[in-house]
Amino acid sequence: MTEWWTDYTLRNVTLGAVMLGAFSGILGTFPVLRRQGLTGDAMAHATLPGVCLAFLLTQTKSYPVLMVGAVVAALVSLALVQWIQSVPRVDPGSALGWGLSTAFGLGVVLLGVVQSTPNAGQAGLEKFLMGQASAITSEQVVVIGSVGGLSVLIVTMVVPRLALATFDPTFAQTQGLRLSYWSGLLNALMIGAIAVGIGTVGVILMSAMLIAPSAAARQWTHRLGPLLVLAGLFGAVGGLFGALSSLWVPRAPTGPAIVLSLSVLAVVSILFGRDRGLLWSRRRGA
Amino acid sequence: MTTDQVIISVSALAGLACSLIGIYLVLRRMAMLADAIAHSVLPGLVAAYLLSGGPHLLAGMVGAVAAALLAVGGIEFLKRKGRLREDAAIGLVFPAMFALGVFWVSSGYQNLHIDADAVLFGEIAFAPFDRWTLEGRDMGPKALWILGGLAGLNAAFLALFHKELKLTSFDAALGSLAGFAPGLIQGLLMGLTAVNSVAAMGMVGAILTVSLMVVPPLTASLWTRRLVPMMGLALAIGAVGSGLGAAFALLWDLSIGGSIACLQGVGLIVSGLVAPGIGLRARWDSRRRQRDFQALLQLTERIHHLPSASPKELAEELGWSPIQVKRLLDIGLRQGVLGTTETGYRVQLGR
Amino acid sequence: MISPALSVSDLTVSYGENLALWDVDLQIEAGCLAALVGPNGAGKSTLLKAALELIPRVTGTAVFFGQPLARARQGIAYVPQRSAVDWEFPVTVLDVALMGSYGRLGWLKRPRRTDRDQAVSCLQRVGIADLAHRHISELSGGQQQRVFLARALLQGADLYLMDEPFTGVDAATESTLIETMRSLRSEGKTVIVVHHDLQTVPEYFDEVVLLNREVVAQGPTGSVFTAENLQTTYGGKLALLTP
Questions:
Q1: Containing domain of residue A230, as a range?
Q2: So what's the ipTM on this one?
Q3: What is the pLDDT of residues B226-250, one digit of tens each?
Q4: What's the CATH code of the domain at B68?
Q5: Could you read off the pLDDT of B87-110 as tens digits, one per residue?
Q6: What subunits make at least 3 CB pairs under 8 angstroms with A?
Q7: Measured between alpha carbons, how far is B305 from C75 in angstroms, rounded to an integer?
């Protein structure tokens, strides 16, 4: 057991994966409730060109620097997707498909450019595609802990208002809430979660970190408080098992491993969940 | 043909084939479902290759279609029984399927003839070297034959079911009343999307597949509302855009799939900016019309209360410039909202 | 002199280039049950929303008890149409009722025990206390409408604005709603209701505003709710529903 904490990689992976899973599970809950889970998918894909550009401009692979690039790219993609959604005849889904594929296309082009530069070998930007648990450094653990912890703290402070603005926007406005502020805050939190997560899970599957835990948690409860707690818990468990298993299975990228363990949790929840689980509703005759 | 020419033709043909099927994906607002299918075919493909002992085209297609139908069924199931919203259901199913495929591909089965890079980025650059030999004769690049066949299959589907597709896309209830099975049409469309996804994944990778299928028809829809011209335009955009994207990539030594997706993406932005009735100009005009309308309302409301006020007095009352008041008075008189009396103006909102 | 509960003047509203309300002036005295009546598209809901600044106005003002909205907000309870709510949101009946206390709670404060007790008694008042821990989607249309009324009651407002509360509810709920409104009136509160059913207007309401983009008539039900005024409000459509 002592080996766990003395082994540098193992400790970082455990800490990083648990925190990341918990934070993205909690931060993903409101976007899922607001039907914006797939917006998160498009933004996650869009961080790839941001990361590449940040590297090309600064020639450093310091995680905070790359994160700045990721955040800027996510914001730009969000603005563009919302603009395209406002174009007549464009439905929201098509706009998301356009956004994620165009951004990822640009990312692939830039990744090629990065790989043809002299110090490409050290850049290791490929880990942003599918994630790499062994790449979690203590620097990254600190970033995940501080950004994620702060975001979760903010969410817990304003849960009643977020709930009001999501459940009944009209009533919320009569209570003096400005809806645009709250959706802006939620977007900011989602982008924060994406930016800290892509190094571990990768841009392609990051959205599952936001969606799967709360979708699984929803099968167990119909109240918001327990839902947030459970989503955090499922995220932590899934993150931990996935990250560790990817260390043990040779050549397995971390993103798929984490997503697979979260998916198992989701399937189990759908089958056995107390609130909506299939077996329960069958027994209740519903 | 030179290798560059082959790559450009293969790209154009892939763009053409995928836009054919994409037209109805866009019209039925199924872009993200198509994206989910594009990701979900991977485990089916891998399983089929494992079972059949090699990269057999037909087995792969069967596996891919099965996986796609499984994914679509799973999404429907989650929406109904797990009571998740469509976006959450999609966002749960496709990462799981794709993760399974990638996990399979990258951990262990190295003799699969697909690797993670091929799944993510496609292998269009190798298309000229993968040739089809028939009885010892070189028939040219395999990809051209496969994509040509696919384009033919898609076109045949659209031609055969033109009426049914049109009707069920417009109104599923009306379609089923008229005796068409919307479920069957939907199933065929999904299956064909899966087949196209496999081809597109081989060319540009799983993630950019949605770009080939969805973006050209979407761009085309901004330029025309009529179905058949939109189809023609979508095909042209798909073929020319992809061919051009590949040409740029070869010229500047960039990723081919990435360049195609970028160019198609930029095409949509440009169309959103300039397409008639939709672009910035049209939006600016309609915003100005609305502003004028509201200002005219404000003005008529004042006139209603001060029927004998002169334009100058009205301008003072509203804090506007006399020129603005004069302009709006003219608009109001022209539209018949205002009429003149001996002393001033009167409101006639009898619409 | 007591200020009217709601006083609207010169209110004009348009959606894009569609005129929704034209130069509306109206006054609802405090302590009455008032109905906004008019055909579909007459701007009844729009009037409430514009008064509450939920949608922009072209011209005009709305004053509540002599105060602008910003200062009167605490005293106003708005019950939107049921369709405006996300029914899959993870909240119980009690949670929804408790939302009525958010306006009083400051930043970072959570509802307390006393708020919960009050919420339960508001649910009792509308007769659904036994459903307090159900998920909101498990309720019938009438029960859902009662939850919203309970939430409004918890706000402890002086003015209640309700958008079509009787649409799609059962008879029992309708009588509970109207009983509650009457008891609010007896406490000196004011209730303004967007109403569809012409038959029940004389029975339920003291005051009526007849609206069709403009105010056709307003005042005590007895003098305003006449066949002639209704004819003007509904135009030719009235022939179908003569009282």
A1: 2-279
A2: 0.92
A3: 999 999 999 999 999 999 999 999 9
A4: 1.10.3470.10
A5: 999 999 999 999 999 988 886 555
A6: B, C
A7: 32
